[in-house]
Amino acid sequence: HQGLDLSAIYNYVGSETDTGVSPQTKIASWGTLDLNLSYRLRSGEAAQGPRLSLAVSNLFDKRPPYAESANLAIGGIYFDSTNASAIGRFVSVALTQVW
Fold it and tell me: Are strands 49-57 and 25-27 parallel, antiparallel or unpaired?
C-alpha cells in the first residue's frame, strides 16, 4: 500500500532420523516464521529513493529440535546444525538508497 511492503516466510524442516546413535532416534520437525516490512520514504518510481526496512528472523524465538548425535561429534551441541540454527530471534533494520 503506497510504498509499504510486508512479507512473511515460513521455514519448515520435516522430522528426520538421527542415524548417528544406536538405537536410532527421531529428530522432531522444526518451523520458524520470518517477517519483513519495508517502506519507501519517497513516492514515485518503486526502484528509486530511500527505503527503510525491518526484518525479524525466527519471530517466535523457536529453539532447534534435539539431536543427540551432534553432541557425540562436538560436545555441547545438541541440534542438527545442517538443518537448523541455534540463533534465536534476530532483528535487523536497514536504510537503503537507490539512484
Answer: unpaired
